[in-house]
Amino acid sequence: MFPTTKVTTTTMYLSRYPPSFHSHFLSFFFFFFACLAYLITFIGATEAIPL
Predict the structure, then answer these.
(1) From CA 51, how far away is CA 48, in angstroms rounded?
(2) d(CA 20, CA 16)
(3) What gap in Å lies between CA 6 and CA 50, rounded to an integer?
(4) What predicted TM-score, i.e. pTM, was given to this entire model?
(5) What is the pLDDT of residues 14-48, one digit of tens each?
């Protein structure tokens, strides 16, 4: 019940902003997530290679 309440609160909070803000926020979030995944993959590959 808590996660649903949290999602509902987040949705109500984001509904105050125009859709352009939503697209900008989602693009930034996905860009950050892609960079984070790339760094994790790069570090994992570097550590997997024996020096």
Answers:
(1) 9
(2) 12
(3) 44
(4) 0.42
(5) 667 666 766 777 888 889 999 888 888 887 777 76
Tokens representing 50 are 């024996």
Cα-based angle 13, 16, 3 (whole degrees, multiple of 5): 20
Could you tell me the two tokens for 24?
A: 């900008």
CB 14 within 8 A of CB 22: yes
d(Cα 29, Cα 43) in Å, to the nearest integer?
A: 21
37-46 core/surface letters (b: 16 or more CB in 10 A; e: else) = eeeeeeeeee
**Tally: H helices and E strands in the chain:** 2, 0
